[in-house]
## 1
Amino acid sequence: MFPNGFLWGGALAANQCEGAYREDGKGLSISDVMPHGVMGPPDAEAFNLKHIGIDFYHRYEEDIALLAQMGFRVLRISIAWSRIFPNGDDSTPNEAGLAFYDRVFDACARRGIAPMVTLSHYETPLHLAKTYDGFRSRRTIDLFQRYCETVFRRYRGKVRLWLTFNEINTVLNHPLLSGGIWTPQDELSYGDKLQAIHHELLASALATRMAHEIDPENRVGCMVSSVPNYPLTPAPADQIAVMLADQTNLLFTDVQARGAYPGYMRRILAEHGAALAMEPGDEEILKNTVDFLSFSYYLSRCISADSDKMQTQFFGASVPNPYLKTTDWGWPIDPQGLRLTLNRLYERYGKPLFIAENGLGARETLDPDTKTVCDDYRIEYLRAHLLQVEQALSDGVDIFGYAAWGCIDLVSASTAEMEKRYGLIYVDRNNDGSGSLRRYPKKSFGWYRDVIASNGASLHQNP
Ligand code: BGP
């Protein structure tokens, strides 16, 4: 059973939905010059779908009204840092950018939707990336604090749920997208990335402390990409391979939820011949732990100690799992992995959990006659995952909400395309940029509305 007050809703990110990339004083972010997502180098000249996105900047009223029709109680969005501080190191904020989010939060409030705000979702101001190499520089921590203080004060009372960095653990694989690091990946040592991670962890802890100081009612969470690793065989070597793979992810939640580097950090540093440059006071800062943990969940990974078996994948080196089907983009579909993730995180940290992203990316077209998309496969995907959330609740895990990723179709993060659709609402826009941008509820729209209205009970009916 889902508890009363469970926060049902969905999630979006500014750089993937807002568009208006140069409007009302906004500066460029790294995403504005990454037309291929993480599949190619930055290119400021090439056509970039994110420049218009799904035009949420001008259509947020209509979009929030549609989400309210589904009964949303929470909407996770991000603030585009470069809308508030166009260069990232400006001395004063951009009032037009601040006013935009006032309007968005007011629209949510009018419809009884609580905003949950990600402070940094793959959209570091480009100037910070180019000038300071993003979070490789300690200076970026101060600039992030300036931005956080501005938005915490401005939206005091309007926003109470905050996430610091989206999928903070992806810095190791995607240093530009995740850490705003302009230096090409192949020129970075592992130690360079660990140092940037240290800076992001400090920035996150300082933001958490500041959020609590500015409004004791603020609740701050971390956000990680959660991918359970399974051993390919019962061979002990495969178990150890899983343990090591897990640790490179747990490192982030261990620091953010427990307040200190775990013991195995020593081994990680030694293995890579790296050392962290720490300043006096850093360890104290890290003690400012989060109130809750949030994560994205899309897939699980299978791991072998035999490196010849491991294949390079966008979501990390792994072996195909013979028990799982995959999406059109090759992402293994594993609802039970979500129950496992919820249990493991709760056992380890004992803090409330929020599922910040989950969903199915698929190619689909609008039926010209019915003006909808019959997305039974998405309903099945979401239903199977939500039933596992319910199982985890029965296991005793404290879960306070669920956000369906890309609840309105938007530009994808990894491949920067429009045609990888996650929405319960179809947006008429195509990879070549054509389309009216009109919104059309899909079949999953009515299905999710019923799930929310019945507080999960309708999941037990066949869709
Ligand atoms: C997460 C990101 C989102 C998002 C989602 C789906 O990694 O936090 O921004 O887009 O994954 O990924 P994609 O859009 O690449 O399918």
Note: The mean pLDDT is 97.
## 2
Amino acid sequence: MNETTTAPARPTRQGGGDLRLSFEFFPPRSEPAMNSLTRVVARLNETGPAFFSCTYGAGGSTRDGTRETVARLLSLGVNAAPHLSIGADSQGAIFDLLDRYREMGVKRIVALRGDLPSGMGAGRIVHNAESLVRWIREHSGDYFHIEVAAYPEVHPDAASAAADLEFFAAKVGAGANSAITQYFYNPHAYYDFMDRCGAAGIDVPIYPGIMPITNLEGILRFSAKCGADVPRWLVKRLEGFGGDETAIRAFTTEYLTRLCEELIAAGAPGLHFYTLNRWGVSRAVCKNLGFGVSDT
Ligand code: FAD
């Protein structure tokens, strides 16, 4: 028997106050997919986001795609933030890209070490995100707002939680303005991370990353790779829907709404959604949270 879920009635909250919203895309691989992303942007833009970001394949594998997607976003009149992964790129290639972005009117960069696509050899990554933040500051001064990644559940490469926090502190020390976390489904991971950041004197805003689940196998595969924990009870609940995508979407929307409500109540400064280029669950959660979406 498939399980069902019923959404409780929610009061409408007026706007998101000072909370910052942002949505992440990957570069579409074709013109029809780019056109479809334009429609996704229109739906998500109703929530009043601060920016839309676009991922970057380390090793330069999506350099053109990221730049073209950012150009399209800017042409739609929204703020766009390219991700920039240091990967195996040379300093010169990164400086060129920074200049191009500046000419295009980009004001925010998500600065990452990145993971090289399989087959390119992880050993070719010789720098980390701290170096990239330093290079951006060295080349462009304070022009860009720099976001970096944070890992409440600890990055898989880290020797320990303490060592991971030291690397995070170093990125902030190098000039990052704020951070976006890897996604997590247990809010206590974020609370604990925020406590540890506070104790270490790290005071930049840290925005929780929120990952909708529409495909259980896909999320389990990706989570195993990036070190995100999908709790057993959540896996069991999702398995109970037997692949019924409508039911999974309804359940995920409710679960993520509660997660976001708790994070906001605990002081999260905003939310960053990993949209996977879809608007459904992200927009529905934002609507539940009162971010200016009136229809269904
Ligand atoms: P870093 O901060 O440099 O390092 C991550 C961790 O590795 C550190 O916390 C530390 O524990 C360890 N480490 C780093 N340097 C050393 C060292 N010298 N010695 C020992 N340990 C070290 N990937 C992409 O390819 N493209 C994207 O667009 C992209 N966007 C992302 C957006 C967000 C918000 C997040 C959270 C992740 C994103 N990623 C992306 C994934 C990210 O690139 C990977 O998690 C990568 O493995 C680490 O990148 P980082 O910038 O966090 O690296």
Note: The chain has one domain: 20-289.
